[in-house]
Amino acid sequence: MAASLLFSLILLSFLSLSSPLPSSTILDASEILSDSGYVSMALTLDLVSQTLTQKTPSLTIFAPVDDAFKKSGQPALSLLRYHFCPLTLPPETLKSLPSGTKIPTMLPGRTLTVTNSPSNSETSLNKVKISRRSPIFDDGSLIIFGVQEFFDPSFQAPGPGDSPRFGPRCNSLPSKASAMGFPGDSWFKEASGDLRSNGYSAMASFLDSQLLGFNKDPTTMTVFAPNDMAMANRPTNQVQDPSIFLRHVVPCKLLWSDLINFTDGTVLPTYLDGFTITITRSGSTMMLNGVTVFTSNLHYSDSVVVHGLNELLNGQATSPGSGESKTEDDTMLNTSIQV
User: Would you place residue 266 in the very low, low, confident or very high pLDDT band (cuts 50, 70, 90)?
Assistant: First the structure.
């Protein structure tokens, strides 16, 4: 789909190279940019209009805010070309483009990548958010959107063969995570109590038993706890397997506010070697390896955060060092979403 959209957009851009935009349109746009607080881009548009806007009758410009100009200085003409698209892209069109779609620019050989998140209504290109107050200017032939910073021409969207995108504060994990040990049980007395009082007694007992005997320095962690009903549906030998506990624990503290800011496809390591948790969304619902987060911030302290689940986490686990994947319960999950 992305390839066909790119082909259509590029084809349209070739068809548009016929007559220039009226100078009056550029003048109006420059004035509105200045009045809207985009003074640097207004001055820049005046300077480059003869070079960049005289080659197309339709144009979409992504205008960086003044602070972006202050940080980088006056940009090179090549970088400015990267912010000019030889098509008109109305807001509804831009929002409807699926993540991964390539948008042509006036910088030869460079395209912008749509990186919209399905979890909210924000639109972004190359991970740069488009201002919600956009478009700044729209007369049908020229549309200008505000962006928070300059686009990076070297930006590359993760592909199906790229390394997993580990979440912030979870981007490193010792090769033998399970051997690290956990904080002493005194750190988790309140967590266990909250679990038991909310229908997660089995996981609370698991938490207590796994912590016994460990005398390591305290660390932080996030527990994704299946409820008692989910645990009761498993054979006794599976419920007593320590790997059940290890694969539900992430070696960093992640509040709900952290989780919702992760993009789809973000991967979280766990204390079970080779097992990872992939964040996706179905509408506004947060999912971990396809399992819905049922209760957020069930417990949180300086060292531990607990979120409740109504199922056990299964999914795609990778054998350490093998590069090959194996599945559990015949559940296959993609670690990235491709258009």
Answer: confident
- What radius of gyration, in Å, describes the C-alpha atoms of the chain? 25
Same fold, 2-147 and 165-327: yes
The answer to pTM > 0.70 is no
DSSP codes, 117-173: -TTSS--EETTEEBPTT--SEESSSEEEEEESS---TT-----TTSPPEEPTT-S--
CATH superfamily ID and name for 2-147 = FAS1 domain (2.30.180.10)
Per-residue pLDDT for 252 more than 70? yes
Cα 135–chain centre separation: 24
Q: Check pLDDT > 80 for residue 65.
A: yes
**CATH architecture label of 165-327:** Roll (2.30)
Residue 92: CB atoms within 10 Å: 7
Task: Give per-residue burial for 237-271: e unless 16+ CB within 10 Å, then b.
Answer: eebeeebbbbbbbbbbbbebebbbebbbbbbbbbb
Q: What is the pLDDT of residue 221?
A: 82
More confident residue, 64 or 92: 64
Residue 170, amino acid: C
Is the pLDDT at 12 greater than 50? The verdict is: no
User: DSSP letters along 11-55, please?
Assistant: HHHHHTTTSPPPHHHHHHHHHHHHHTT-HHHHHHHHHHHHHHSTT
Task: Look at strands 325-327 and 316-318 and give their pairing.
Answer: antiparallel
Record the tokens describing residue 163, joined without a space: 């390394």
Nearest residue to 336 via CA among 115, 174, 103, 122: 115
* DSSP bridge pairs for 145: 62
Q: Where are the domains of the chain?
A: 2-147, 165-327
**Furthest CA-CA distance within the chain:** 77
How much is the mean pLDDT over the chain?
Answer: 74
- Give the residue from 201, 205, 208 showing the smallest Cα distance to 228: 201
* Residues 304 and 279: beta-carbon distance below 8 Å: no
